[in-house]
Amino acid sequence: MTLPGSAEVVVIGGGVVGVSTAFHLAEAGVQVLLLERDELGSGSTCKAAGGVRAQFSDPVNIELGQRSLRAFEDFARRPGGEIDLKQHGYLFLLSEPADVEAFESGVRLQNEFGVPSRMLTVAEACELSPYAVPDGLLAAAFSPTDGHCTPEAVVQGYAQAARRHGAVIRRHCAVTGIDVSGGQITAVRTEHGPVATSTVVCAAGAWSASVGEFAGVELPVRPLRRQILVTEPVPDLPPRLPFTIDFATSFYFHDEGPGLLIGMSDPDQEYGFDLRTDDRWLGRLSAAVERRAPRLAEVGVAHGWAGLYEVTPDHNALVGEADGPGRFLYATGFSGHGFLQGPAIGEVLRDLVLGRRPVVDVSALDLRRFATAEIRPEHNCV
Question: SUPFAM superfamilies given for it (predicted)?
Fold first, then answer.
């Protein structure tokens, strides 16, 4: 493998955040090298459920989600490529009074930013998502422009466009260290040799903590396994089924080809990099399906997989530039929101590298918030 001797910016990580950053930097005329230790998107991105939304409770997440939605809508033109975007909406089914109150407040805030979300009655929600039953539900929240698309296609679209603009992308090239001299980055070391650089962007997802250690930067990101199932074909699948989430349990489903993609968090899951699938979570999932969408209980499972959330203490991302060494930037810890925020985050990192005011003010996501106890909990996590 040949590596350039130097690069203005080295991006570490070839998931959606990394390739989006590489594209936006290269488009701006920056000499970029992206390093991925495996295949592009092989970490968390291509294991994601593919949801894209702007329904959040935190203003910065609303802005990042909304700006990214616009980028997904325009993806065929820039950067180019078909991503199978389906804007059938996100539907949050609510069964706890406190959640209804929180989502009502969230919808008001989202509307201020131009997001067309709204609260629905239980009957309206069950009409939109006919597999859901009304038992125990109090209300729902819905935004018609949310939806889902194909993560692999997004990664390839950004990567191909980045190359067209001159970016160099190297797969199967693990980073082994970062050289620092006089408080400044001087090189990135890889298993195929060193590359001189003064600027590093850590976009390594669940593996970001170890990359931070190379530069002496503590990134509080931990990996947490999440499992997903895809069902066998479902007869009479509604043509515009929204991405439906039973918020109290986190059980969710959306259409995936002729079947459904189904997932749910596992509160007993321990942190770690284990990507093996197992049946331990199926009992809790089955109970949630029986209660909220009993018609789906008899649908067979075609296949499944496991991926990693990159979790921070407040379930909000880390985006910014470290106090030291100079020019170590990071975008990680998205806690399940990295894919949907990837387009906007690439723009933000471009701006931070170039010393511009970012298109979205992400100062609230700076690493320093944990030192000052200014955490920003995100309520609308799945």
Answer: FAD-linked reductases, C-terminal domain, FAD/NAD(P)-binding domain
- 3-class DSSP state of 322: coil
pLDDT digits (tens, 9 = 90+) for 40-62: 999 999 899 999 999 999 999 99
Contacts of 237 (CB under 8 A, 6+ apart): 255, 258, 259, 260
170 and 267 share one domain: no
CB 159 within 8 A of CB 32: no
User: Which of 311, 329, 352 marks a domain boundary?
Assistant: 311
> Looking at the 3D structure of the chain, how many domains does it have?
2
Residue at which a domain ends, from 269, 287, 311: 311
Cα distance between residue 226 and residue 159, in whole Å:
26
Flag whether 74 is in a domain: no
- Token reading at 330: 């990071």
pTM of the model: 0.97
E-state strands within 13-124: 32-35, 51-52, 90-94, 118-120
Looking at the chain, the number of H-run helices and the number of E-run strands are: 8, 19
For residue 291, what are the domain limits? Answer: 90-144+222-311
The per-residue pLDDT for range 302-339, each reduced to its tens digit, is 999 999 999 999 999 999 999 999 999 999 999 999 99
Output the domain CATH number for residue 269.
3.30.9.10
